[in-house]
Amino acid sequence: VTIKNIERELICPACKELFTHPLILPCQHSICHKCVKELLLMLDDSFNDVGSDNSNQSSPRLRLPSPSMDKIDRISRPGWKRNSLTPRTTTFPCPGCEHDVDLGERGINGLFRNFTLETIVERYRQAARAATAIMCDLCKPPPQESTKSCMDCSASYCNECFKIYHPWGTVKAQHEYVGPTTNFRPKILMCPEHETERINMYCELCRRPVCHLCKLGGNHSNHRVTTMSSAYKTLKEKLSKDIDYLIGKESQVKSQISELNLLMKETE
Questions:
Q1: Is 222 helix (H, G, I), strand (E, B) or coil?
Q2: Of 184, 218, 244, at which residue does a domain stop?
Q3: Do residues 205 and 224 make contact, with C-beta atoms less than 8 angstroms apart?
Q4: The RING-type domain covers which part of the protein (predicted)?
Q5: CA-only gyration radius of the chain, Å
Q6: Domain interval for residue 154
Q7: Cα–Cα distance list, 1 to 39, 111, 134 (Å)
Q8: What whole-number distance in Å separates Cα of residue 252 and Cα of residue 143?
């Protein structure tokens, strides 16, 4: 709340954004460096438009275009002067107090930069970033700012913690991770044939998950289906049995390999 109250004092009255390289005007108000340039260029263009309107009253008044970067560079360059037909203006209304401000012969070059305000704005930016930062869930106090979030673990990590808890060569290294976030939505599998439908059945004949549209009028209408939870439990049990079988045969296979190696040596 305190930071938000300070923010209104750090907003440029011209662009309504945080100050960028603020300059101090003769009326003691501050304004962004780029905003002063744009105001002067718009006033010059307005002066030229008035002259063209007087010569052709039937022509509609066009909206003032935004000044190009090359025009901004020229107007701020020391020694730059317009010709006599398009006089350079140095007076404009201050966006803060609306009083006319005359920059004199030096123009923008005669204004001083508000370094104190610039420092305060930069510290405010840092404080605002820290207030909205997502911190690491696994760091020891004090926690570091997180750099990524794991969608499978539903946690945020700094670089060091992510390397520790997701080491290369492990299953966790294959987890899906995104930028720092607090929105850990559960993964939802969508049907490849009906992109707007969620997968909620398992076809036992095709051995693949399907949606209700696939069963009602699709390629799986005459196939036997079961629920995803039931299919998951059945397939998990089968996979566990297959793994146990392979582990049980490991010693037998190793002994057979040893016997084959001995036979090879005897044959040689």
A1: coil
A2: 184
A3: yes
A4: 12-63
A5: 36
A6: 133-184
A7: 33, 34, 19
A8: 51
Report for 25-29, 73-77, 133-137, 138-142: range of highest mean pLDDT: 25-29
Residue 135 CB coordination number (10 Å): 14
Same domain, 149 and 250: no
Q: What is the pLDDT of residues 97-142, one digit of tens each?
A: 888 888 887 888 888 999 999 999 888 887 777 666 788 888 888 8
Q: In this predicted structure, what is the pLDDT of residue 62?
A: 33
Residues 140 and 159 both lie in one domain? yes
Question: Position of tokens 């938000």?
Answer: 4
Residues 42 and 67: beta-carbon distance below 8 Å: yes
pLDDT for the residue numbered 3: 58
Query: For the whole prediction, is pTM greater than 0.70?
Result: no
The answer to whether 31 and 17 are in contact (CB under 8 A) is no
Report the C-alpha gap between 262 and 268 in whole angstroms. Answer: 10
Angle between helices 69-76 and 33-55 in degrees, nearest 10: 100
Tens digits of per-residue pLDDT, 35-54? 888 888 877 666 555 555 55
Q: pLDDT tens digit string along 182-206?
A: 777 666 677 878 877 888 889 888 8
Q: For the stretch 94-127, what's the b/e string if a residue is b when 16 or more beta carbons lie within 10 angstroms of its beta carbon?
A: bbbeeeebebeeebeeebeebeebeebbeebeee
Residue 203 bridge partners (DSSP): 208, 225
Domain of 115, CATH number, reads 3.30.40.10
